Amino acid sequence: MKEVKPCAQKNSYVKNAHIITAFYKQQSRPCAPIEALQSILTLLETLSPMERLISAEQLTLLNQKINTIPTGRQRALKQARDDTFMYLNAVCGWTLPEVKLQQFKDYDHQWMIAICRQGALADSLYACYQQETSHQIKQRGKLSLAWTVLTLMIDVAPLPLSFWCERLNDTAPPEYAQGQITLCITHPKDLSYFDDTEPTSFTRYAMTPLAARVFQQWQQSQTSNTKNVTVNSITKELNQFLAFSIEKTLSPLEWQRIIQVLWLYRFNLPPEVLKDFSDPMRHVSALPRTTFISEQQDTSDDFYDLPKFSNIAPKTRDPQFKHWPHQVLIKHLRSPETPRPAQPDWQSNNLLPRLLFDYVQELNEFGGIKKDNLTLATIYRYSDFKSALSHAPLSFEAASDSDALQAWAERVYDNIKKDSDSQSHMYKFFQFLIQQPLTEHLDLSSFVKPTHNVKVDALSLSAEEVHHLVTLLLAANVSPMQKLFTVVSALLSYYGALRRGEILRLRMQDIRCTSQKSQSFHLEITKTKEGKTKSGKSRTVHVTMPEVAAKLVRMVLSIKKGCTPEQPVIGFENETIFSRALHYLLPITKGLKYLYGKQTRFHHLRHSSVKLVYQQALCLANEGIPETWCDPEHPITSTLLSDQFVKQRFNYWLEGHSFSEMNNMLLFDEIGREIGHSYYATTRLHYLHGMDWVAPAFTSQKRVYTHAELRFIFDMTPNSSDIARVLRKLDPSYAQLSSQDKKYHTPLLSHQTLSKSISRLFAINKDAALIQETYEETHMEGDFWLNLWATSIKDLNDVTHCSAFQWESLSLIHKLQDGSLDFAELSQIWRTFAQYKDLFFNRSQRNAIRVLGEMSLSIDKQKDRLILTCPCNQKVQHALDVLKRSGLRYHCHITLYQNRKRLDSNKWRYIHEHLLNENDTADKVVLPTGKTHLTLSLALPCTDTSLLESFQTWWNTLLTHKEKEI
């Protein structure tokens, strides 16, 4: 692969150095000179050009090169080295040697000492702030910049002044979501964690009612002639605010530390959590998404539909693919008078022709990242991958395998000229691929330069949304066993935070129900013959789920109890991992995208699980659920966060002890171990999206309010008597007080109660994407899902009413549970009756097989056989072809009964040439009298006589329905 030109490399280093400088400036922290940063970045490019990793050996080489500098520039380079490493670790996700990580821990210790030194000054500031607050809410003079900033820093988050400066200049109002008023803090554009196809990343913080009112009044006071605030103007105002208590002016960093120590002592925050509140770059909030919930249950059948592949056999002589359908589409767009090409069928040996066609169609319909309409020249340029993809087909099987798909993408990307426009265009195509159900598991992180910040896929689902998905999956009119394996995969992923491969590789020996009919399960996630874990390490996962979900998991364990320990939990015996991914995970992916948007992926079930378990851990630590999390519109979530459920969830860790008896600092380490994360930084950045939901678990959500404060919050005049009306609504006890007591009554009110009231009084964005759906059915009843699944299982006596033969029956399930039928036999039955391909004959096919006649069952000690009697002609040949293509597995023995007067006919040769398939057999019997005919003896690899009888009844019923489709 060709290297980029030195000048291009130099420009890249200059840009990265400026980004690092801007990062530290945003944090109000000192940074090494740009020239020194450029030198360090140049050295890093030679040591670790393609990985987000610096080994101990590479660090030694870097230090050796720095130590060769004989002048004071060596000190600047050492500072630049540490500044660069801290940036790469915090923003770009680099793994550093332990010696550097320990050095950063020392920095954290020094940071704690530095903020604690501001304790006395913080006390003075807080006293002055309270006096100023009392003055502002009573006198209502011109809003002070210093008081506004202090209110936001004390009540919302102790952010660096640079972030508050930008937010005060931003006209975007707060948003009301999930019972809170929230404020979005946008990240610097060059440091955005989102792809360039999306807006700049941001972090959402919860606002107190007082802070929301102050911020709203600040925005109302700004006019087109008002000058923007700057960090210097804020710092100057703050220094004047506390002028009588300080001997020297304080820097922006010192002001942040003063507020940080207030947060530390007011809320007793752990240092890591204090840093989370203090730095927006440590958390990424999820983008608003369009939530579409369909009430039409029949649409869920589409989730299980497999791609329809072309029946045309691919040409294998020419390894280069030349005929691209998307080029025909571009030609039509250029010349509309030409016929518009139809969407091509999928090809199992190469999905790219269809994917590129859909990509061009989407570019034409929706435009690009910045423009709604793209020129045809641009569309052609974005999709001109002939040289890159003609020799790199993507088969259906490779696309379904995460590792194979990743290897294909990296091979294609590396074969394109480095840093060229073509690489950029290919990356855009990869972004399109992760929106498609078949290729959504492609990991784009390996295509982002190591010195660029990591990309965060910020999205999580509520328990209600996951349960709604499961209900729709169960309501589909498809194979009951396929539905069972599919929904259990979804439930294990959500409640166990399992990855795709971990679910597919989970074996019977790796899962254990803690007790009979328990809601808790122990899972061993480890290396198997089908693959290893992402980290290469084994881990134990403890899962607790509602009874309605646990019953489905226990059902799978019950019907597979006779399996060998090595058998996968999900799927039939000897079913390939490719088939399991296709039949059980793809429907989940398609359902997620249909319900919650194309950006939703299977992996987001794991994201959502991690957030849930952290919420449960915080409820355990707080010995209760925060009021904000108790949303009546989310009853399932409230149940999962209840005291009883949380204690059951962590029972394995508590071992009968109360949380107060435990070393509480180990709880979050335990969660990290269970989800397979070595570092909290990975969890908080990629899984715990936003700070708005975190605040209720660490900060006080109730406070006493004076009448003056409430008048200010509700935008009343200082002496308004209308406050009595508001108090009667907010505090039920107010009406019972005497007139004198009412004057001095100071109610204890929650932020949630006040936020809900004031959000209706002034312009607060109620973002539709943030207002969760209300679910009429909670589906928490213990038997709801199991009954829904069971109703789709037909009894053997009902087969006469089925257009397709359904081999799954209630009697088979009962036999599995009582041990009279083992799962190996069931797997054989599954393969016999066309697996998941419906054993179905349409009208023309039924007309074709009618020549075979009615079926009878021959019960034999060695093997039961299905018997058909028919003539020997071309119609029978066509009928047998239809039967073979149906998916039914059998061995056929043909007996030719030939009249002795017709022995000279070619019937016997015709049988061998046209009717026998591989492994079929034939014999001949000479009849003294009677017509020549055939007897077809079908031996099915199925030992269940009742099932064969059911199939016989279905077949004979099928042949008698001539007038209409069944």
Write structural notes for this entry.
- The chain is α+β, with helices and mostly antiparallel strands.
- The chain contains 42 helices and 15 strands.
- Among the domains are: about 5-115, no CATH class; about 325-435, no CATH class; about 705-745, no CATH class; about 840-960, no CATH class.
- α7 packs antiparallel against α9 (about 210-220) and α13 (about 325-335) runs parallel beside α14 (about 350-365).
* Gap between N and C termini: 61 Å
- Secondary-structure-derived class: alpha+beta
Major sheet summary line: 5 strands, mixed
| Strand order of the biggest β-sheet | 11-12-15-13-14
User: Rg, please?
Assistant: 34 Å
Overall mean pLDDT score? 87
Element layout with pairings:
Blueprint: H1 6-26, H2 34-47, H3 56-67, H4 73-90, H5 98-116, H6 119-139, H7 145-155, H8 161-169, E1 175-177, E2 180-186, E3 202-207, H9 209-221, H10 231-241, H11 252-267, H12 271-278, H13 325-334, H14 352-366, H15 376-382, H16 386-389, H17 396-400, H18 402-414, H19 421-433, H20 463-475, H21 480-496, H22 500-505, E4 511-513, E5 520-525, E6 539-544, H23 547-559, H24 577-596, H25 604-622, H26 635-640, H27 643-649, H28 651-654, H29 667-675, H30 680-686, H31 695-698, E7 702-704, H32 707-713, H33 723-730, H34 739-743, E8 748-750, H35 751-758, H36 784-790, E9 804-805, H37 810-818, H38 823-832, E10 839-840, H39 843-849, E11 855-858, E12 865-870, H40 874-885, E13 891-899, H41 907-915, E14 921-927, E15 933-939, H42 945-960
Parallel strand pairs: 13-14
Antiparallel strand pairs: 1-2, 2-3, 4-5, 5-6, 7-8, 9-10, 11-12, 12-15, 13-15
Helix pairs in contact: 1-2, 2-4, 6-11, 7-9, 7-10, 13-14, 20-21, 21-23, 21-24, 21-25, 25-27, 25-29
